[in-house]
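request received
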Amino acid sequence: MTRVYQPTDYVVEKSRVSSFEKYKEMHKKSLEDPEGFWSEIANEFYWQTPPQPGNFVSYNFDINKGNVFVKWMEGAVTNVCFNLLDRNVRKGHGDKIAYYWEGNHPDDYSRVTYKKLTELVCQFGNALRDSGVGKGDRVAVYMPMILETVVCMLACARIGAVHSVVFAGFSSDSLAERMSDCNAKVLVTADGAWRGEKLLVLKNICDEAQQKAKQKYNHNVNTCIVVSHLNRVTPCGRLPDDIRTLYKWNDEKDIWWHDLVEGQSTICPPEWMAAEDPLFMLYTSGSTGKPKGVLHTTAGYLVYATATFRYVFDYAEKDIYWCTADVGWITGHTYVVYSPLANAATSVIFEGTPFYPDNDRYWALVDKYKVTQFYTAPTAIRALTKCGDEYVKMHDLKSLRVLGSVGEPINPEAWLWYYNLIGGGRCSIADTFWQTETGGHVLTSLPGATPMKPGAAGFPFFGVEPSLLDENGQVIEGPGEGYLVFAQPWPGIMRTLFGDHQRYQQVYFSKFPGYYCTGDGARRDEDGFLWVTGRIDDMLNVSGHLMSTAEVEGVLTEEPRVSEAAVVSKPHPIKGESLYCFVILNDGAVFDADLINSLKKLVRQRIGAFAAPDVIQYAPGLPKTRSGKIMRRILRKVAMGDHDIGDTSTLADPGVVEELFKSRP
Ligand code: WTA
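response:
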């Protein structure tokens, strides 16, 4: 039996929602009266035209009744950036620190106040306008974890441009595909950055991406704006005498960030945006292989991000909050940039890795900045667990009150380590389940309010009502396991896939008409806790990075020696899941170390280093049904070396299974 952890007095004393009863009451109210509930938060913001009573939310989730749509606060007009910055400065937070920036090297750090950040954003907003970027234009962003990245995103929001951030661990192919798909006008990057002792020359990747975008998709960006970052940070490895020899410069297209902002006014009138105007887009992997441009809009996202941050992290005015996620993922968007600023919070933003210069870097920073809320991913926790407890014990972590987890289910062992060692047995853990598509947390525990079970995501956030469905679409009441779906929208849910509303309806709303389908399975236990069991589509989650099997298979079959490939997920002690790949070769091709290396390299090149396969296995054939569908269930067993494969009678050639076991590396 799983032990239930009640919130400790230490957390309850200061918490906003201080009992399970109060949570339930508020949750009930949020569902019965969404307008009443969300208006309270919306009313804190500045509106050029406020939300109109009676017109707060409208939606259709049932494709049989017509187009799927979601609208919140239609008719209202505002600007997200203005609310995050100018509003807070006007409220007296001008001198408050918005971010403590901590560089990869411990000698590099800085800070920025709300007032200064406003000025920087205004200058860059004006610079973007001068570069021909206007309302609705897309701006591709390929940047490290530096303050300019935040400035760039907020400047886009200020002038109504739609930022499309691509995680700077993606390859040039992936960047090319993403910036072409959204037809980005401008690309913003940095010359390079260090991660630990590794130098990443981002400018080169951007140049390659631009070339590929041109060749493959006939797409050109007008300008590439480059932050000069390498020359102001402490090098962590060897550099040439002149760092400009690391990359090429194209006078026609490339422009330094500092040249562009020089002399720009620190006043930049915001573009007033309708509630449902786009705020940003962010690509996430799709099960067909082509990335999906998830689109979020203005008012609903702002209100939802604000509320989740406030309640889930139980943020109070003097707290110091730190989310370790990269800005290239949705967690970085909502919980590094938008929601902390909306709450006038002080955050830490960290460029480096948990292992540089040593394995205690995270804990050193918690101690240095006296962090009160710490939000990270299970994969990081597991990796740090392996480093040994002495790295933790070197530091004083008593400032912590709330610990967050995101990206994948957290295994009870990691949860307990996090709870006992990092949290000292006094902090609440918020295991936050959500998706790029949901915009903010949808299932979580609430510090001070809800009990916790190690590994359970807990309970729905306000305004969220989850259902579990069986294969026939019947609702499962009480304890049980099924598809995790939602019958009604909360303000932060995505509105469409950029340029492809058909696909949006097909992917998320066609399996069970009337419901948004997450693609995850979940179990409700006898106490009402929800446990997310993982993806039920052909998606993998490696270190919290989602990718589709089809995407990787597509890359593997590009190699001329490979005729067919099948990829499955294999459990991994640190990464959660890892890629196990089966390849069938073309006639005459040889399976050898050279092939394995080229395949691994190809996946890194096409997708990114984080997608590199762990195992590539020679396959004499694949287990297929008579209709030609690959039975991945069997491949997963082979990957595990588990001979208990069950019924294989539907296979066209059951003999292939034994051969696959024999050819395991
Ligand atoms: C998984 C990341 C269990 C899930 C915010 C989801 C989780 C996908 C959790 C979305 C969690 C995320 N427990 N599973 N706490 N958080 N997931 O779009 O499979 O990068 O569908 O958003 O990650 O990943 P995405």
